[in-house]
Amino acid sequence: MVKPTLLVLAAGMGSRYGSLKQMDGVGPNNEAIIDYSVYDAIRAGFGKVVFVIRHSFAKEFQEVFSADRFGGKIAVEFAFQELDYLPEGLSIPEGRVKPWGTNHAVMMAADVIKEPFAVINADDFYGAEAYQTIGEYLSQLGESKNRYCMVAYDLNKTLSENGTVSRGVCGVDANGNLTSMVERTQIERMPDEQIVFHDGGADEPLAEDTPVSMNLFGFTPDFFAYSKEYFCTWFAENSANIKAEFYIPTMVNKLIGDGEAELRVLRSAAQWHGVTYKEDKPALMASIAQMIADGKYPRDLWK
Question: In this structure, is residue 126 part of a structural domain?
Fold first, then answer.
């Protein structure tokens, strides 16, 4: 069995949150969410972690999240996402100021990942169960191609009490494979307890157990080549929109729609935690404290 790699998307500065939240302490010894993610990945059999970051904060980030921090229990590498990191022949449109989205970030790791890998957001706390589930799936793939996966959460376990959220709502067939992923914005629980999204100004209800993506995907390395090829097409179609982003679901929907790949949806009953807003941090810290009290994590992760 191959040891999968964990790819951590940490290049975003967290515009709504207002700081470099990837490094914000949430544990009793100032551990960041990233620390818990790496700890869970190690327990799930991952052999390497790759951080996608920006040069603007690379020195600060690399000083904190080095292999020494993790006690040598996992290999650590870095890749960089920048606005001008584009395939040959493409140039930055006038007025564009931010990089090209999550799937562009994934593309930046092509030179350092040669094995099945999981992709996560740096600012999401997915839980040990999720890493165990996706780690087991990826470790069985060997040299397979076009076999992807994702961990889907029940919508009601991914909401924030401090504002609306955006989620990728998943369609799943009888075999447990993804059929579609539709981004729904402005999702929230209403005073009558119903969950709705406000896309287009109309309130549309969503079931409590609607499977949603939290950007926890698993891919085989062939995904990089598909992404580079399609990015050029996407770029030609979207470069005039200076805010357009090349998201992971964009690439996934393309491959599934064309019949190039299948993506198994692995369901998780776990509670997701995150810091979409600064006001989410106290609740996350309280949840971590409770998990430590319950014996799910040691008080000092890296002691």
Answer: yes
Instruction: Measure CA of the first residue to CA of the last residue in the chain; give whole Å.
Output: 29
CA geometry: angle at 183 spanning 164 and 161, to 5°? Answer: 15
**Does residue 164 lie within any of the structural domains?**
yes
Examine the pLDDT at 13 and tell me if it is beyond 70: no
- Alpha carbon 265 to chain centroid distance? 15
pTM value is 0.92
Residue-by-residue DSSP string for 223-258? HHHHHHHHHHHHHHHHTTSTT----HHHHHHHHHHT
Angle at 88 between CA 86 and CA 89, to 5 degrees: 100
Domain interval for residue 100: 5-293
DSSP tag of 245: -
| One-letter amino acid for residue 1 of the chain | M
Burial of 270 (0-12, 13-18, 19+ CB in 10 A): middle
Mean pLDDT, range 113-140, rounded to an integer: 95
List the CATH number of the domain containing 88: 3.90.550.10
- Given a cut of 90, whether residue 43 has pLDDT beyond it is yes
Work out how many domains the chain is built from and give that number.
Answer: 1
Taking alpha carbons only, the member of 31, 237, 36 closest to residue 121 is 36
Q: In this model, does residue 56 exceed pLDDT 70?
A: yes
Residue 65 inside a domain? The answer is yes
The conformation of residue 103, written as its DSSP 8-state character, comes to: H
Other residues' Cβ atoms within 10 Å of the Cβ of residue 19: 10
